[in-house]
Amino acid sequence: MPPTNHSASPPYSPKTLKQQQHHHHHPIRSLHRSLNYLLREQRLLFILIGILIGSTFFIIQPTLSKLGPPEPASLISRSVSLSSYRRPGSDPFFSRGSGRVPAGIGRRRSRIVVTGGAGFVGSHLVDKLIARGDDVIVIDNFFTGRKENVMHHFGNPRFELVRHDVVEPILLEVDQIYHLACPASPVHYKYNPTNVMGTLNMLGLAKRIGAKFLLTSTSEVYGDPLEHPQKETYWGHVNPIGVRSCYDEGKRTAETLTMDYHRGAGVEVRIARIFNTYGPRMCLDDGRVVSNFVAQAIRKQPLTVYGDGKQTRSFQYVSDLVNGLMALMEGEHVGPFNLGNPGEFTMLELAQVVKETIDSSARIEFRPNTADDPHKRKPDISKAKDLLNWEPRVSLREGLPLMVTDFQNRILNEDEGKGNK
User: Fold this and answer.
1) What residues does the NAD(P)-binding domain cover (predicted)?
2) Beta strands in 340-420 (DSSP E)
């Protein structure tokens, strides 16, 4: 029997043969099996679609973040110190990264409080801010404001309504404060002359949280003016102990406080001096001449003209005023700015326009003039034109019919309510 050569080949082993076969054929078989599995179960299609969706998201996400609203301002205010971050509304340009981006282009959603936001002017301002995409908190004690003016926002998560009197302090975290809360008509401010304490509280809030503050002052700071038309540099001619002085001097004091907080505490402030404004949602019986004439004409009552009717006023439609307030808040100038329509009308001329619009048969009734009633009132708005690029667009004959329609509906509902009692 020939000798066995052990060095020529290793002894036979089924295990060794199996390992060798596995080593040579496993990668190919595994790949083949994997491809069959992917194709049979359509996993490859799902993988490709997933890659496509992921790539698309990462490509378009930066664009969406610029176009769409960012995270809610309430979250921003909690995660970022209000005193340390620069608010987009605090300057016409604000920093984003290393560049300077004009306000309104990729602007962050602001969190804004409007005191008196359920009132005539305030509710129109709220409408515009909500339409712009901001979060709005309305503070109102409903002394002259009405829930009906803002109830169309009740279902909106970006709108809040707080029943509160600003003569009492309140703590909120916001970016901007529009301070409109103050009875603005003779009927109301003579009954409830609150002006200074509300302004003081809201200025204190602005100081604590670093918010920008806008004061709505009034043309009444000019009193019975000796300058015509009135420029912002005119200091006024006011009776400090008259029946109107709680309002006139109250607003003058509010302006003083606003500038003191600006100079002494570094609060970023804006001051608007508002001239006669009219439009839908005005109080029906607030003693102001436009609402008086319109309500009287609709009710078939005589139009009451005080004195000889030669006193002049300038009337701006409420949408023009709202545009001016927002331009002032977003701008870089403190003010004060006159916001009014320089179109000047005597009381008799206004009565005639109301007659033409509502009832040509309405008659005019003269009554003794009230004390300290200004004889002339007309704004010089050249400063607002130059620095805010603002001027009124709506004429009295265009705006008055819009107000008349609103008054007719409300007076009709009022009469029906009385009839049902």
Assistant:
1) 114-401
2) 344-346, 364-367
Confidence grade of residue 244 (pLDDT, cut at 50, 70, 90): confident
pLDDT mean across residues, the chain: 80
CATH fold label, 73-92+106-280+315-344+372-396? Rossmann fold (3.40.50)
Q: Are strands 316-317 and 176-179 parallel, antiparallel or unpaired?
A: unpaired
Please indicate whether residue 388 or residue 40 has the higher confidence score (pLDDT): 388
The residue from 178, 189, 222, 247 that is catalytic is 247
| DSSP per-residue letters across 63-80 | HHHHHS--S-HHHHHHHS
Q: Please state, in angstroms and rounded to a whole number, the distance separating the CA atoms of residues 415 and 410.
A: 9
Give per-residue pLDDT as tens, 185-211.
554 444 444 578 899 999 999 999 999
pLDDT, position 86: 38
Enumerate the domain spans of the chain: 73-92+106-280+315-344+372-396
**Angstrom distances, CA of residue 216 to CA of 15, 179, 190, 203, 326:** 95, 6, 19, 13, 12
Asked if residue 325 lies in contact with residue 392, where contact means CB atoms within 8 angstroms, the answer is no
- Segment among 16-25, 85-94, 106-115 with least mean pLDDT: 85-94
Q: Which residue, chain included where needed, has tokens 């603002």?
A: 390
List, in order, residues 6 or more apart from 396 with CB less than 8 Å away. 315, 317, 341, 343, 345, 350, 353
Q: Is 247 a catalytic residue?
A: yes
Give CA angle at 221 (234, 306), nearest 5°.
110
Residue 34 corresponds to which tokens in the numbers above? 């994997």
Q: Which residues touch 177 (CB under 8 Å, ≥6 apart)?
A: 112, 113, 115, 202, 205, 206, 211, 212, 213, 214
Q: How many CA atoms lie within 13 A of 76 on its CB side?
A: 19
Q: Among the listed ranges 6-20, 193-207, 321-335, which one has the minimum average pLDDT value?
A: 6-20
- Identify whether the C-beta of residue 325 lies closer than 8 Å to the C-beta of residue 339: yes
Q: Is pTM beyond 0.85 here?
A: no
- Both tokens of 293, joined, read 């004439």
What average pLDDT score do residues 402-413 get? 90
